[in-house]
Amino acid sequence: MFNSVLALSLAIPCLLRPTALGQDYRLHVHSIESQELKDAVKACTANARIVGLGECTHFTKECYLLKREIIAALMESGFRGLALEVDFGQALIWDDFVTNGNGDLDTIVAESGWFTYRTDEFKSVLKMLREHNASAKQPFRIFGMEMTAVNHNTAWLSTFIKKSGIEDDSLHELLASSAPTVAFEQHSFEQASHYWKLSHRTSNFLKEHETQLMESCGESDLRIAVRMAEIFRQYATYVSHADNSLKLEFRDQFSARNVHWCLETLGPESKLIVWAHNGHITQDALANYDVLGNHLSRWFGDVYFAIGFTMGHGEFGAFASDGFRRWKIEATQEASVTLELSRLGAPYVFANIRQGLEQDPRIDSPLRQDRFIQRDSGESFSSEWPQLVRINLSQAYDALIYIDESSFPSPIEWKRPGNSN
Questions:
Q1: Which of 66, 55, 76, 49 is nearest to 140 (CA)?
Q2: pLDDT > 70: what percent of the chain?
Q3: Which of 95, 96, 60 is nearest to 377 (CA)?
Q4: Beta carbons within 8 Å of 419's beta carbon, 6+ residues apart
Q5: What is the end-to-end Cα distance of the chain in Å, rounded?
Q6: Which terminal residue of the chain, N or C, has fewer Cβ atoms less than 10 Å from its own Cβ?
């Protein structure tokens, strides 16, 4: 996942020295609920406005539980929102729950079209946020930065229009015939054209009836509806291209724009957490296009702080060629960052890379060299892939959390929206 240029050239004895990556900036963490970890995260993100929280797989128990604790710590530091790698409309349902208590927690998690969030571990994150907001002066908000699924978006907009009392048969017909329920579906030319029409008609409807919509639905919902029209445009752009590399580039570019919208929605000087895979929050460009973290790093400079995750061995979930399955990887014995971190003997390690770079300004510092590290897993995985990949930590992350042994999370069976069974 990382496009390093140089081959690993450090000798094995150097890699295995206790001081190879430095000592002072690496915190040994012995439990997920560690107060030391929370304090360390709060300290290193004190000047940050956006914190990217990565994950080395989309289906690992420890990643989600650690992120829950980090989010709790960042809320104490004044962070007021969480933008997730999930579609815009799906997040509106979760936001309504955590801010207003509307909806049944079990149902809104089970009906997610994203397998990554259908776990007890993620449900515990929403529960924690709801408990926080129940007594908070300012609610902590949830946003979706994705444009790769639209069913929740069309459902929300249909409800919005019904509430307004304004009749529009052409827009109603376009919304009613928009049916995809999961992300990344393939579309024909005619289907893609449908979403261009939906975007155009939605924008015109909102402009034509702005005053009446403001009166009947309120400024906040109208702002969401205007963004919904933009999300439809992004979706139409995304599905109109057959070139997968181009689609990936559009996806990260649009996600970055949507993160910026989240900040504007929260207000001046607001602070936001971004939850996504390592491959999105990294500050290093991947392949031949810029990822989300690369955009945010250029736009916001040092006030963007990227926290990556990596693991030594254990279980996780991902798709194979024959469907979703449970995977297990063994600990590597090859010279690598992974082996070095495993030999520290802690279940978790928090490495403040920014601090390490300040402590060791040498050009040939191990943090500035291309190293090997355990391969990440996204939606899919294959045992035929190399176990280790190259990474330059100084270019990828501002901090790295190492999980020595990962566990398979507690999955929740998918319940299709509107299906009572």
A1: 76
A2: 91
A3: 60
A4: none
A5: 39
A6: C
Measured CA to CA, the distance from residue 45 to residue 311 in angstroms comes to 22
Dihedral angle over CA of 299, 302, 307, 308, nearest 10: 70
For 261, what's the count of Cα atoms within 13 Å in the CB-facing half-sphere? 19
Q: Does the pLDDT of residue 325 top 50, yes or no?
A: yes
List, in sequence order, every residue forming a beta bridge with 374; answer none if it has no partner. 388
The tokens describing 107, both together, are 């149902």
Structure-token pair, residue 123:
């449900």
Would you state the torsion angle of the CA atoms of residues 38, 42, 48, 49, taken in this order, to the nearest 10 degrees?
70
Q: What is the rounded CA–CA span in Å between residue 84 and residue 355?
A: 27
Alpha-carbon distance of 70 to 68, in angstroms, equals: 6
Euclidean distance between CA atoms 410 and 291, whole angstroms: 30
Tens-digit pLDDT profile for residues 55-91: 999 999 999 999 999 999 999 999 999 999 999 999 9
DSSP 268: T
Q: What's the confidence (pLDDT) of residue 106?
A: 97
Between 149 and 14, whose confidence is greater? Answer: 149
Do the Cβ atoms of 379 and 318 come closer than 8 Å? yes
Structure tokens at 145: 């930065």
Identity of the amino acid at 214: M
8 A C-beta contact, residue 87 and residue 144: yes
Torsion of CA 124, 128, 134, 139, to 10 degrees: -110
| Token reading at 171 | 């827009």
How far apart CA 374 and CA 267 sit, in angstroms, is 39
- Written as one letter, the residue type at 212 is Q
Q: What's this model's pTM, rounded to 2 decimal places?
A: 0.92
